[in-house]
Amino acid sequence: MIGPKIQELRKGKRMSLSEVAEQAGVAKSYLSSIERGIQSNPSIQFMEKIGKVLGVTVNELLMSQNDQAIRDQLDEEWLKLAEDAMNSGISKEEFKQFLEFNKWKKSH
């Protein structure tokens, strides 16, 4: 799944395979095999190099279109709230219970 994402980003920047490979310091043949799905498990170092040239993070390379669509709908404040909740030690189950309680409270 990562190959088509790299190819889409590369083409979006109007860069050739050769340009990206050269700027990233990776073999053109390897980059081509990733894009075509012949190789499907690139290293983190490879993705960091490619991401840097394409102007994206490794997380963005790994993110599916669905993940990106959801992320685009969330503003930074919602993302920060979710991050704060996770960092506070609250479990998913506790958070779900809180939301259910809030729904119940509003309906009564």
Structure description:
This protein is mainly α and 108 residues long. The protein has two domains: 2-67, Orthogonal Bundle (434 Repressor (Amino-terminal Domain)), CATH 1.10.260.40; 75-107. It has eight helices and no strands. Helix 1 packs across helix 3 (28-35). The N and C termini lie far apart (47 Å). The mean pLDDT is 87.
Which key terms come to mind for this protein?
SinR/SinI_dimer_dom, Lambda_DNA-bd_dom_sf, Helix-turn-helix domain-containing protein, mainly alpha, 8 helices, 108 residues, 2 domains, 434 Repressor (Amino-terminal Domain)
Quick synopsis:
This protein has 108 residues and is mainly alpha-helical.
Write the SSE topology.
Elements: H1 2-12, H2 17-24, H3 28-35, H4 44-54, H5 58-62, H6 65-73, H7 76-87, H8 92-107
Helix pairs in contact: 1-3, 2-4
Shape: elongated
CATH architecture assignment name of the largest domain: Orthogonal Bundle
The number of distinct β-strands equals: 0
Number of self-contained structural domains: 2
Helix/strand order, N-terminal first:
HHHHHHHH
